[in-house]
Amino acid sequence: MAGDSTVRGRTAIVTGASSGIGRAIAERLGAGGATVHLVGRTPEPMRESVARIEATGGAATVTVLDVRDSDALAALVGRVAEEAGRLDVMVNNAGVARNGPILAEEIEWSREMLDVNVLALLVGCRAAIEAMRRTGSGGHLINISSTAALRPDSGIYGATKAAVSYLSEGLRQELEGDDIRVTSLLPGPVATNAVRNFAPEAVAGIAALAGVGLQLSPGERLPDKVLDAAQNALATHIARPDDIADAVLYVLGTPLRLNIPEIVVRPAQTLAL
Asked: How much is the pLDDT for 130?
């Protein structure tokens, strides 16, 4: 992969790194030689990722953090940049998803999606930009949006991801005079635990694709074997987290003299959830 060698020596932060897309991005960056700081709410998977990164000769740390804690998130970004003397990559990946209609969505769930998907991402962007300017390192912000942003039938979740794309483009324009680039990456359906808060029938459908029966409480994480089996059963309908990590490495492999505002990565065929 062209991007593997170009991330060597860089300092990167990845939020939502305890599963799915964030975890795949963190491990790929670490394997490519970046020092990666994994941020998430579930420590054990991140520790396992650190062990895999270190096994390849890379370096990584774990911070257990809810990105809705704005002060803690901003402080972490500042501390990483201060200790390393630079911040090269900020991947704002943390997110929550539900697929309910707008009129049926509970206010508390809507608030959580807005807080995590939009406001926490904005805090991460601002803190990273401040750190990159302060250290003079330049760098890249990768904001994980979704193809849901392109579909008006995607409910509140789609609205939050449309906001991510909007903020990313606005920041890109504001930063044209800096050596800081902003890319919004829009994945289509991916085999991750982001679907755990979907309607029960949608979760059951994913399990059925995997050929297993599930008895899960609302919001409970799907076992990795179920996600892997579902992806294998419909390889042209569900992308892998590694596919998104590949796109991130491609973006980071381009020079700062170029701008890649947006990349859409979707499976070859459409899957309705």
From this structure: 98
What are the extents of the domains in the chain? 3-188+240-261, 191-238
Q: Active-site residue among 18, 49, 145, 154? A: 145
Does the model's pTM come out above 0.90?
no
Catalytic residue, candidates 157, 165, 168, 184: 157
5 is catalytic: no
**pLDDT of res. 2:** 40
Q: Are strands 89-92 and 59-64 parallel, antiparallel or unpaired?
A: unpaired
Question: Which tens digit of pLDDT belongs to each residue from 162-217?
Answer: 999 999 999 999 999 999 999 999 999 887 655 544 555 555 666 566 565 555 55
The answer to whether 267 touches 236, Cβ cutoff 8 Å, is yes
> 3-188+240-261 belongs to which homologous superfamily?
NAD(P)-binding Rossmann-like Domain (3.40.50.720)
Q: Which residue type is seen at 136? A: G
C-alpha distances (whole Å) from 36 to each of 29, 56, 116, 183 are: 7, 13, 21, 19
